[in-house]
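PROTEIN DESIGN WORKSHEET
SECTION A - STRUCTURE
LENGTH: 373
TOKENS:
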């Protein structure tokens, strides 16, 4: 099939943000002989972006007629469903990050994640659960790959081979799963750390892992002053859930809604809330922005916006989240946002949300409070 027909919708779009790339094509080409011989139901796809690997694997050969797929991002899940529906492709079964997605799989296709922790957790799940003869075909753009990825895969597989490069992309093949070692490694996730009495729990690939990044730390230092009379609050793009948990701990009467489009982030935020004894007051939802929250309903939203879309730098995600905050805030409600100072978001916040003041600043980050008009 022509992968150029795929679309990113409903995700952020733009000239530098394609729905597929040369790495997807190389993965599919290298996997083609394995897909042709795969029995029905024995093919799995992990961390597909917008459906190139999943739809491509279904159309390559008769063997891949029932493809199981797990995508971390909700926007990716919706893009795959929309692309498959528009192109008339069936036989696709979306699943959560659990053994059933790769149980007994003979062929697994995947995009190599930027995070080595994510690669470690995913490869452990495959090696612990898939068929002993499984072949994993994992690829990416060379500029985002490292030799450390080979070593991470060797933690769960006895053999790792490397393809020739093509169009600045490369594929790693993993075979001979080390089931016992992989099972032990899988049991080590999620990871947790305690910082000044706050326990942070994270699955692989979540921003900052079980740490508190310096931007979030700056936000937490001043968040006690944010709308002190608020009875509800939102941790938007919650990641590991540290902001939502901190708000719930500091304000015993407040209920928090935490949202993220990443399934790994949602699982991490729920675990963080539970570890800090506030799970009854922190509702964690996988969502695109604040789609699950009513318009004009919130008094306080806290946000540390991402500025990467997969491997590409993009401010489009932040602007999308600013607009979501503007829609969801009640008149006079406030968005407290921390951002890399070089991104100069203050003008956008003024335009999209309302009057914006600087609350704190250090060498790299700025915290602002924007009042909904």
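SECTION B - SEQUENCE
RESIDUE ASSIGNMENT:
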């Amino acid at each position: 099939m022509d992968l150029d027909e795929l679309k990113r919708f409903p995700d952020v779009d733009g000239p530098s943000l394609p729905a597929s790339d040369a790495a997807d094509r190389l993965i599919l080409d290298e996997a083609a002989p394995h897909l042709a011989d795969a029995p029905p139901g024995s093919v799995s796809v992990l961390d597909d972006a917008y459906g190139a690997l999943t739809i491509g694997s279904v159309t390559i050969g008769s063997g891949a007629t029932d493809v199981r797929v797990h995508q971390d991002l909700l926007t990716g899940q919706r893009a795959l469903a929309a692309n498959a529906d528009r192109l008339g492709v069936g036989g696709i079964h979306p699943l959560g990050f659990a053994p059933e997605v790769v149980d007994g799989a003979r062929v697994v296709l995947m995009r190599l994640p930027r995070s080595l922790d994510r690669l470690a957790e995913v490869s452990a799940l495959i090696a612990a659960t898939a068929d002993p003869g499984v072949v994993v075909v994992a690829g990416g753009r060379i500029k985002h790959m490292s030799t450390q990825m080979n070593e991470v895969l060797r933690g769960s597989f006895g053999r790792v081979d490397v393809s020739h490069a093509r169009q600045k992309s490369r594929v790693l093949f993993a075979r001979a799963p080390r089931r016992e070692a992989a099972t032990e490694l899988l049991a080590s996730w999620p990871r947790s750390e305690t910082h000044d009495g706050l326990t942070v729990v994270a699955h692989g690939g979540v921003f900052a892992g079980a740490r508190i990044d310096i931007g979030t730390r700056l936000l937490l230092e001043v968040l006690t002053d944010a709308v002190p009379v608020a009875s509800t609050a939102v941790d938007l793009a919650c990641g590991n859930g540290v902001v939502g948990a901190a708000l719930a701990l500091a304000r015993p009467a407040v209920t928090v809604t935490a949202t993220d489009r990443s399934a790994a982030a949602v699982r991490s935020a729920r675990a963080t809330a539970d570890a800090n004894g506030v799970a009854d007051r922190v509702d964690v939802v996988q969502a695109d922005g604040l789609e699950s929250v009513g318009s004009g309903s919130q008094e306080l939203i806290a946000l540390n916006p991402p500025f990467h879309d997969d491997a590409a730098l993009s401010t489009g995600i932040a602007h999308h989240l600013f607009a979501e905050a503007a829609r969801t805030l009640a008149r006079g409600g406030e968005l407290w946002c921390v951002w890399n100072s070089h991104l100069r978001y203050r003008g956008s916040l003024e335009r999209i949300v309302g009057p914006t003041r600087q609350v704190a600043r250090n060498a790299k980050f700025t915290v602002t409070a924007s009042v909904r008009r």
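SECTION C - NOTES
The CA atoms of residues 164 and 212 lie 39 Å apart.
The chain has two domains: 3-186, 191-371.
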